[in-house]
UniProtKB/TrEMBL annotation:
GO terms for molecular function: magnesium ion binding; phosphoglycolate phosphatase activity; phosphonoacetaldehyde hydrolase activity. Binds 1 Mg(2+) ion per subunit. It catalyses: phosphonoacetaldehyde + H2O = acetaldehyde + phosphate + H(+). Homodimer. This is Phosphonoacetaldehyde hydrolase. InterPro entries: HAD-like_hydrolase_sf, HAD-like_sf, HAD-SF_hydro_IA, HAD_sf, PGP-like_dom2, Phosphonoacetald_hydro. Its EC number is 3.11.1.1. The active site is at D15, K56. The lineage of its organism: Bacteria, Pseudomonadati, Pseudomonadota, Betaproteobacteria, Burkholderiales.
Amino acid sequence: MTSPTQNDVSAVIFDWAGTLVDFGSLAPTQIFVDAFATFGITITLEQARGPMGLSKRDHIRELLGDPAIQAQWQATFGRASGPDDIDAIYERFMPMQIAKVAAYSAPIPGAVRTLAQLRAQGIRIGSCSGYPRRVLDELLPAAAAAGIAPDCVIAGDELPAGGRPGPYMALANVLALGAEDVRRCIKVDDTVPGIQEGRNAGMWCVGLTLSGNEVGCTQQELAALDPDELKARLDRATRRLADAGAHFVIESVADLPAVVDIVRARLAQGKQP
């Protein structure tokens, strides 16, 4: 293993679903649909994907703020939703997510190889997630058995300052990994709040399209898509992640090593995020 120089990349901080594991980011989205259904509220996968990247309680709050979903709630319960309803949905969501998250722990193609390449270059591997710690505790052993085991994992509910789009989880990784300079760190994510998190932390940011929430398809669904529809989805995902502040947008984590080389070259030229 080599050691990074003073101007080299020192750490890469990854999201989980849609980035390292769970191609298409299906685990959280489907469970939101299922959890709302237990309250008699129908939401689509597209609606469920909207706030993806936030902590799960904040995600539920945002969903209830959607006018169409709020109208359903008021028609069903005869009143507007409130904080207690957010809590109730969250408590319904949590055991459902815990029960199923390990089934979505398969690494995204190329992820294991990418982590190995980064480690061989002396780059530290961090991670964070909108998943609460109780969910990550179920996901992490299954992911590790498949070859995905970052050096640091920060959950979306364990920092008093809060989660995305704030910089706190990314910065907690910096502290835990002993990374000397945020400008030598890279944040990799498939969601808008995750890219905003990295920018707010002062890092280089890489957005992922094909494997993640913005395209939102399994590999089987992608294979069946009309080429024009696939291009439209990729173009939309690229625009959204770039508009959120991504310095680079690629299809999946398999493409990351080439971006790390570019960042390394820019650092050597004295450039900053």
